[in-house]
Here is the input.
Amino acid sequence: MKITHVETMLLTTPLKKPFKTALRQTSVSESIIVKIHSDDGQIGFGGAPPTAVITGDTLNSIKGAIENFISPAIIGMDIEEFEAIMKRLHSSIYRNTSAKAAIDMALYDLYGKHFKIPLYKLFGGARKEIVSDITVSVNSPEEMARDAAEYVRSGYTTLKTKVGVDSQLDIIRVKKVREAVGNDIKLRLDANQGWIAKEAVRTIKKLEDMGMNIELVEQPVKAFDIEGLKYVTDHVDTPIMADEALFMPEDGFRILKMRAADILNIKLMKCGGLHNALKINAMAESCGVECMLGSMIESKIGITAAAHLACGKLNITRVDLDAVDLMAEDPIYGGVQVTGSKHAIPDAYGLGIEGLK
Here is the structure.
């Protein structure tokens, strides 16, 4: 099965309500969709959203990297030369992790189709279904409490609450959300780099003293501040998770070596796809550190790829793959079957993506 050509197209999908974090706000999901064609008529699907404030990637840069650098490097190669293809992919251009992730998942899709196996089975087949949290966007405490209660009524048992805009107000936000949903719902906080280290420690300790029962706090400090991340991890009881600090496998190695975080959040758009995500998870598992599989506001193609990996590996104990449920419509045929918080993997080959509506 040889790669003959690569197509790209833009997919735009409205969200049910604006998505707001300490870093950005958006009301639509945009992705560059990739189709990799083979000489036997198969198509591998991939996708990547522009998340410039996190990855530095834009729609134009993703499209340009794929068309001008990555595609010429892999066209003509045989899908059975998978390691060689991955080496070509990652050496074709520096960084541009979102573009690489889109191509990576399309290649894995082709690989699964060629060998007639669903990817989650290729990755280990740990389970066929996972349960995701859902994100409560950063807003006024009252609006966040209303949104949280609505998500719980719809069946979610774990909420990822966005904070990091104002630490004093963040405490009120969390208190209002906890009061709205009760003590049985898991609360995860995501500061999106919004605090500095000592501020993070003060805020988290205050929440601990208030009995807010926070499951974990995600990326409390700037991505580059690994020492600050370690400081927070060492000075609070609540587990701390690295997100924006973790892009490539070498970042994971450094965080693990320093014991700078308790949990790693792997995102395909940050690490360049499934190939590198597997490396990060293997390192973490070897160190006794659990991983979360996270996502951007991206298409169901990307969510499906992440879900396959999460279903394949036992060390991925948490998932944040709510993007499909945040969208007002589903423009993708096939892939992961999302019913509220539940994500079920079909036994179709590869990713199980059939096409666009």
Q: What stands out?
A: DSSP finds 13 helices and 16 strands in the chain. The CA atoms of residues 1 and 78 lie 5 Å apart. The two ends are 26 Å apart (CA to CA).
